[in-house]
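Tutorial handout. Part one gives the primary structure; part two gives the three-dimensional structure as tokens.
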Amino acid sequence: MYPSSDEVPYQWIIEDGYGIAQGIVTIVKSEAYDGSFYERVCAIHKRARRKGLATFACSEINNVVDPKIRDKLIACIDKSNHEAISRMEKLGFTHSGYRTPPNEHIKIFHLKKQTMSNKVAEATSTDASVA
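Part two.
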């Protein structure tokens, strides 16, 4: 059974320079904040890590999603995943809290109200690990 478009309003395949699928990035309804927010989910194949593909894909979300969703877009990241936390901060997200038990080890990040172009350029050029 596939989720409805209300549950997954955006979904992209991450491809390398040869058009070969390397991962997926999507936006889903989040369970955080009583389900009133959307969460980015990015998964990339091990062979494609550290090439900037996930950073680019995650940054593109900010440019193409409906503003109503973008204003409620969060990233939920395990507090031990320092690479992903660094990535979200470079892309303009700020730590805003933790999920509720039993997921209290999950940090929640919100997109800062600012232009993204400089943050995206900086993140994709200086750090190519996975988000």
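Part three, for discussion. Residues 38 and 69 are 7 Å apart (CA to CA). The beta strands are 10-15, 21-29, 38-44, 73-78, 93-98, 106-111.
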